[in-house]
Amino acid sequence: MTHLRGRSILSLETFSRSEILDLLKLGAELKAAKRGGFEVARLTGKTIALIFEKDSTRTRSGFEVAAYDQGAHVTYMGPSGSHIGHKESVKDTARVLGRMFDAIEFRGFAQKDAETLAQYSGVPVYNGLTDNAHPTQVLADFMTMPEFCNKPLPEIQFAFLGDGGNNMALSLAMGAAKLGMKMRIGAPDAFWPAPDVIARIDEVAAGSGAQISFEADPQKAVAGADFLYTDVWLSMGEDEHLWADRIRALMPYQINMGLMEATGNPATKFMHCLPAFHNTETSVGNDIEKRFGISAMEVTDEVFESERSIVFDQAENRMHSIKAILVATLG
Ligand code: CP
Ligand code: NVA
Known about the structure:
The protein is of the alpha/beta class. It contains 13 helices and 9 strands.
C-alpha cells in the first residue's frame, strides 16, 4: 500500500471510503500476522514522537506497541515535561520535531493544534484525540464491528448514546457517513452537534448513501441496532462542575439491559471506546457515587461485564489499526 504514504490523519473527513477500507483491511492483515507469528517489520529505523497533553492508556500503548512490533522507536512527551504550548508555540515545536522524527502522534485539546503540527512539521501527524475528533478510535471500532456481525459495514446499523456532540460521536458519525453506514445518535437535543456540523455530516452521508440521524428518544434511537455504543458523559478537559447537569440530562441514555433489549435484536453487542464508568472502582466513580448515589454512569456494570460487551476487542484493535496507519503512511 503506497497511496497513503506521507499522509496525516487529523480526521476521517479527508479520507475517501476506499482509503478507510484499505486501512481496515491492512489492520486485519497485521492482526492475523501478529497472531500467526509471521509479522514483517516494515518500519525499522523510523522514529515517532508521541505528544500527549491529556492522559491515555490505549492510544499511547497502541502507538508504542505497534511501533515496536514494526521496528520503529518512539519518544513519549506527556502533559508536562516538554515546552509545547507553554514556552514554545505549536508552530515552532512542529518545525523542531519535523527535523528529528519521521512522524508525530498528537493528543491534545484544540484540533487547530493538530493541524498546525501537520502544516509545519513536514511529517505525517496522527490525531490521537482532540476535543473534536478521535479518528484512530473509529478505525479500531470499524475494524471490530465486522468481527462480531456477519454483515458488510454499509449494512451495519449502530446507535451512539449519550453526549451526542463529543469527539467520539462526531468521529463515529463522520466515519459512518464516509462508509455509507446507518447510525443514530441518541441524545437530548441540547447535546446534538451544532447545525453546521450536522450539515457537513449530512453532506458526506448524501455522497455515500449513509443514514445518520439524531434522536432524542433513547428507545427509538436503539431500535434494530447491531451495536450500541457509548462514551463518558464528561470528556477530558471539561469542567468537573458539569457532572451534575450531565448526569441529570444523560441518565435516560445509560446503556443498561433494558436498553439493550429495546433494540429488539438479541445479537446486539455493546461497544465503548473506554475508559468507562461502569462501577465505583475508580476515584472518579467512587466520588460520583458519594455525591449522586449512582454506581454507574453511561453503562451499567451488568452490560459492561456481559457476553454482549466487546469493549476489550475494541481496545486490542486500537493497536492493530494504529499499526496499519503507521505502516500505510510510513512503510
Ligand atoms: N479510547 C482511548 O482513546 O483510550 P485512552 O484514553 O486510554 O487512550
Ligand atoms: N470523549 C472521551 C473519549 C476518551 C477516549 C474524552 O475525550 O475524554
